[in-house]
Amino acid sequence: MTRFLMPFSLLLAAVLLPACSFSTSSKSSSDLASSPSSLVPSAKDKTKAGFETDVRDYTAEFVKSPDGKLQAFRARLGKIADQYGLTHWDADKSTYVAIGKGLRKAGLSQPQYEAFKASLGDSQAWKMDAIAEGYQP
Amino acid sequence: MRLRKVINHKPRRQAAARGLAGVLMLAALAAEAADIEYLYINAGEGSASGGHAALKLNDEVFHFQHVAPGWLRAQRDDFAQFRRQYGDRENRTIFRHRVEVSEATQALLRERFNRVLLIEAEQFDQRAGLAKDRRLLEIFLHRPGAPGTLALKGAGLFLADGWNYAEAPAGRARPAALARRVEAAFGPGFLAARQQALRRSLASLRPEIGDPSALALSADAFQPAASAFAERYADHLSALAALQVLTWGRAPRPGVLARPSAPEFRLDEAERQALVAYRATLEGYLLGLFRSGRADWGGALLLGMARLAALDESIASARLVFLHQAASAAPPSHTAYAWSRAEFMRAKSGLVGGGALDEWAYVGLEQAANLFLAAGEAGSGVAPAATPAWPAEVVAVPPALTVAEWQEALARLEAYQQAYEDALARLYAYNLLGRNCASEIFRVLGQALGESEASIRAESLRRLGGEVSGRFPEFIPFVSFQAVGAHWRVVATDTLPSYRLRRLAQARRAENPLLVDLRESNVLTASLYRWHGGDAAFVFFTDATVWARPLAGGVNLAAGLAQGLAGLFTWPWDGGGNLWQGAKGALISLPELFFFNIRKGSFPDLPGAGE
What we know:
The complex is a heterodimer of chains A (137) and B (611). Chain A is mainly α and 137 residues long. Chain A has one domain. Chain A is 63% helix and 0% strand. Chain A contains six helices and no strands. Chain A has helices at residues 2-16, 44-64, 70-83, 93-106, 110-120, 125-135. The radius of gyration of chain A is 22 Å and the shape is globular. Chain B has 611 residues and is an alpha+beta fold. Chain B folds into three domains: 12-119 and 427-496, no CATH class; 149-395, no CATH class; 514-594. In chain B, helix 4 (103-140) runs antiparallel to helix 12, helix 4 packs across helix 13 and helix 16 packs antiparallel against helix 17 (513-520). Chain B contains 19 helices and ten strands. Classes of the chains: A mainly alpha (137), B alpha+beta (611). Chains A and B meet through helix 1, helix 2 and helix 3 of A and strand 3, strand 4, helix 3, helix 4 and helix 9 of B.
């Protein structure tokens, strides 16, 4: 019995050892149940900071991409906002400040920056001001 | 709960052995010191028989998970969330090496790992969009198995299943107050004209299907996902639904608004006034949606109108009325109730004195109210989804194309979808020996540090203190942990014991340790663990004992075999569930015969509200 079990167990262990966590979607970061603290008001600033970081990082990648369309940008921003429970992201100053930070992070030239400020800010003064605020070093 | 924390500082002589250059480099780095953590999560029965590896950068944990259908995907979690899942629910011990690095290195690594996430998010979003498109086309063609209706997010706030935008609603139209404001702002007939324009636009919608031969996906190139046809179609339907709700003056459906009677939900005059001010802000925003360039403005309008209705009732009744979000069932927990009550009261007190209410604060209040309500009603501490979906199954009327045209579009879509799936499989296929959760961390890390092997090695030495390649045998999670300990600039190592081991230590301190050990050694008398169907049948815990492991493993093996045997008879009723669980139980008991433990017992139902 032992002669059979020993090699079998070692073989089994060798096969299983490097195995990694198998995920189901319910265990992903979207599983807010595992992190209620991220939803409650006391964690608001942290949540808002996370939103701004995600918008900044996405913006920086988007503007460097050769085939990005404005509608795709807005759609992704909507999805990022949705993850944070935010619906009115397009009326929230923090969104545009974060976009400005993303433009800074992307290291654009001044003309490129000005062009993106106008298009991503919908040519609206308050949005472009917020983008400029975020763009400041 | 305090953790057992074991800090092993590296011997000074080891640091000295690195030579003067290393000391000088450390001194330079100290001016801007930061740290990263390499995590090894030990084996568990449910999802990782061989352990798991992750990299923690500040509060974020980056790791790679094995996902269906056999792919490996990047994941980012908040550390508390990560620990809750792996350390508590899966009951696995987390080992950590803290590695001293410069702030620049920490930022460089975060940037690279996050870029991987962004690239994957776009590619997998595109994949999801293709699947949605295919489903929608199958609905249009009334394919067998296709539901015939479409789940429209937000529509269920006001509309019942079966809603059809092409049919005139029953009853008499009583335009909402907001509709009058819209017409005042944009002119008479604006809403009717907008509806007509939307119908025309919807009728002319066409799927845009790519050319499979031109498909070029790369794991290193960021490529924004194209807007899916199904999403554009749903956006049109949402907008039409919102306009109908507005012009016919629909009220939220029964059950959409929560009106709890508990005294905590009463509003004083200052709180009521804060809601009056926020109502005006929200209404102004909803008016602005009609000028917005958002394609999904209809969904935002539906949700906003439901919240307006909740605010109106709150203001009129001086009691908080809010969107009711269902929480999934969880065991009653007094701590969850107390915790959620405290959080709700804190959110409510934030209504006054903290400046004008914004959406962040209002949504926070709404979520806290739902948690408190759920905890009180069902003892659940489970958080609701971030944004209420409230879908309704609506009739999917196809845009104007012939059946033959739809069939042709579906055929092209299927070909493109298959090509896309194949391309993703080539990029992200999980490979036990070559591309797993540990090897991928070192691959991405290498990408961040340099382009050639020599530059990666040099930068690893400079930034991390040494190199770990992630190649054999370092792709094995626990070997990678040892390699990091041996080669990187580790300044501390500690252990976060699993949930059960922490509770066991607590119990041993509070009671007779011998009695606790005896009682908790097996599932029959244990008070800390309750067996559930997610774990294979077993009798003895073997993670805390070593010498008795083979004996206990023999009993566990017998239990697994017995479950498997029983599974042969229960197959017709459980679809082979018992047989599979028994086989798994027997297999993971085998290593116990040779002093090796995989099984820990899991706690999948632990509430999220903390202990």
